[in-house]
Amino acid sequence: MSFEQFSRRMRKRAGNVPREANRVKRQVALAVDQAVVVGTPVDTGTARSNWVVSLGEPSDRIIPPYAPTSKGGIGESANAQGAMAQGEAEIRRSRPEEAIHITNNVEYIEPLNQGHSAQAPAMFVEAAVDAGAQAAKNARINTGRSGR
């Protein structure tokens, strides 16, 4: 192989890097978002509904529950589905240069994460980040290499 051929091959592979990095970034963000939403304990549905995904800058919003509930029940699943649908839609829109932020601005999210609810173990946010780290470890990067 000549240097010119090698150079063309490397430029082609380099061109795939932003697209592939964005794909992996999306996979990791989706894994974190789903894990943190599902891991959040539910009373009224507000905390679970307020996992908001935004691009570029963290969200400062607090939203009402997608399906207000009292002590779990049928709204629990609707709140999870609403939060995950919002997150997935936003994550799919992300471009390579954009940061993905997953935030929850309810004032009691930290105590919930510290275990102040009997409905979920402490540190569910950290467990969600661990799920994202595992998704990153399992990700396969396509560099355009064929054969070997």
Uncertain residue segments: none
In order across it, which strands form the biggest sheet? 1-2
Mean pLDDT: 90
What is the helix tally? 5
Share in β-strands: 5-15%
Order of helices and strands: HHEHEHH
Shape: elongated
Helical content stands at 40-55%
User: How does the helix and strand content classify structurally?
Assistant: mainly alpha
Please state the CA-atom Rg, rounded to the nearest Å.
Answer: 19 Å
User: What is the number of E strands?
Assistant: 2
Separation, N- and C-terminal Cα atoms: 16 Å
Strand count, sense and closure of the main sheet?
2 strands, antiparallel
Number of domains: 1
Quickly describe the structure.
The protein is mostly helical. 55% of the residues lie in helices and 5% in strands. It has one domain.
Structure notes:
With 148 residues, the chain is mostly helical. It has one domain (17-138). The chain is 55% helix and 5% strand. The chain has helices at 3-39, 46-49, 74-93, 109-113, 124-138; strands at 52-55, 100-103. Strands 1-2 form a two-stranded antiparallel ribbon. The protein is elongated, with a radius of gyration of 19 Å. It starts with a helix and ends in a 10-residue tail after the last helix. The model has no long low-confidence stretch (mean pLDDT 90).
